[in-house]
Design a protein that fits this description.
Elements: E1 6-9, H1 14-20, H2 30-52, E2 61-67, E3 72-77, H3 84-89, H4 93-96, E4 102-110, E5 117-122, E6 126-131, E7 141-148, H5 158-168, E8 175-179, E9 187-189, H6 197-200, E10 203-204, H7 217-221, H8 226-232, H9 237-241, H10 246-258, E11 268-275, E12 282-288, E13 294-298, E14 312-313, E15 323-326, E16 335-338, E17 343-346, E18 359-371, E19 376-391, E20 396-410, E21 415-418, E22 434-437, E23 440-446, E24 452-458, E25 463-467, E26 486-493, E27 496-503, E28 509-514, E29 523-529, E30 535-541, E31 546-551, E32 555-560, E33 566-572, E34 576-583, H11 590-594
Parallel strand pairs: 2-8
Antiparallel strand pairs: 1-6, 2-3, 3-7, 4-5, 4-7, 5-6, 8-9, 9-10, 11-12, 11-34, 12-13, 14-15, 15-16, 16-17, 18-19, 19-20, 20-21, 22-23, 23-24, 24-25, 26-27, 27-28, 28-29, 30-31, 31-32, 32-33
Length: about 600
Amino acid sequence: MANDEMLVFKDVMSPSLRQMNKTFYSNKEIFFHELINNASNALDKIQFERNTHKNISDDRLIRIVPHKANKTLSIIDFGIGLTKEDLAYNFGVGFYSAFLVAHKVIVTSKRNDHDQYIWESQPGAFFIVTKDINAQQPSRGTNITLFLNDNQLDYLEESTIKNLIIKYCQHISHHIYLWNENNKDYWQLINIWFHDQERDNTLLPQRHMNHLPDDLVPSILSKLPLKSLKRFGCVRRSWTLLFENSHFMNLIRNNFIRNHYTYYEDACLVLNLTLVHHRYNSSLFLSSGERFQNMEKLSWPSQIPEDFGQLYILGSSSIHGIFCLHAHYNQQPAILWNPAINEFKVIPPSPFDYVADFMEILIVYHGFGYDCVRDDYKVIRKVVYAEKTDDDDKLSHDILTVGCVWEMYSLRNNSWTNLQFGVGIPSSSDIKNKFYLEGMCHWWGSEDDFIENLISFDLINNVWIMTPPPLDIPMDAYDNFEMYLVNRELFLLNGSIALMSNYARTTTFYISILIEVGKKETWTKLFVFGPIPYITFPIGIRNMGNILFQTDDGDLAWFDSSTHILQKLGVNVHGRFCQLVFYKESLIRIERINS
């Protein structure tokens, strides 16, 4: 074999393997969910290519091959396939979950019009990629073979595999076949959710079920994730029109609300209450129960000086049990804090914090998130420079803005970095409307001319992404409609980016879900409810579509987006700023990363 047909990558798997072993991969069976999802995505991609290239074969199925004698489990798809470059550089963290149960993994893959290559893991966290000179040249597809650890052989049992299919794969729309050593001539179709139970146990050839009756399609499609559902709109025109069908949209809404988002497991809610005009009064409460009946007051870190000012939590949740605390606009440093172990770190100043006496600095914090590739926690902020001038005639103090800079703090490096290409990026002066999701910090940014956009910053690749808002409010429903009178609230709803809009001085709300950042056309309006009497503004959202509002008299109230019932909680926050965040306890030490 020629040298240029072999690629050796030493120690490149270590960051992904470290990330894999963090808490969200503590459940080993998650590997099955990740690998089947990858296979399904590969089949989705070939479906779209087939719409424009009719010569592509239509073998859209997944095969599972448990081989007890070899202690191997293979997952085979006939999807888009992987090129040599894909094998070398484009595996995500989900793929590496295979090493939760296997000591060795081999991937054989081929894309149309490309050679077939083999990816093989090696001891010591490195792998090799070689050209398969013995390939029989299938048209396309990927075969992932896991060499299971001796204590993980239960994943070769038929009953275990079927249970995992039921538990994790009900959203998969492609056929999944299981091979059996006792009957090697047939493949058992094991995911026929939409047929009679007696058919579930029938041994079926691969060609079975090439056509789905039209009356079954809405029920099946409604169970798909919104991202997959939007993609399938390209397959048939009638499927796109389903979004205009009220019955189908009700199915979508109900399935979305019932969707299980793993972050909510073992998470509790934290209320941060701050007296609006009282500089030194911010109170933090750990709450549980449907009505906040159990309220435990938390003590802020004792090291925080009394003159720090009002304290706020950056984002809508802790990250691995760590909060980022900050003051608003002033030059007090941000703080990283893990309440479970009472560990506390003051983020150092940056060179941009020091200016001449005639200048003033305004600091606005925008994001706190986690870079899984570098195992690093990062903070995003905007520093605004202003010139102080005195106007004796008006007896006022004017501040003239002269420039700004965006910065990112790295806990691992314990330093700030100037973010290039940040000029013109809209910022947010709001404490709310900011959160972290899957490697990105998001906030609702606005400019002086009332132009608003969702701003997303990719912490791994240092890339800005801007998404315009949806046209979610019917303009003809309001007299003399003006866009600047639309109120927007950005939330994380069941693991998805959600935007809630209402027109000024009205209490009818419109909630849209974003399928893909950077693509305005992927906003999907899911909920419209109201008018809701006696409420003023939303505070936050928890799981199952419950929205926390403040009422006219200062009480907190949950609104159920499924039943449209408003339930007052008996907790009055009149005269206080209220912030709702999720907290999930963790023993991860801040100093571990910093050192």
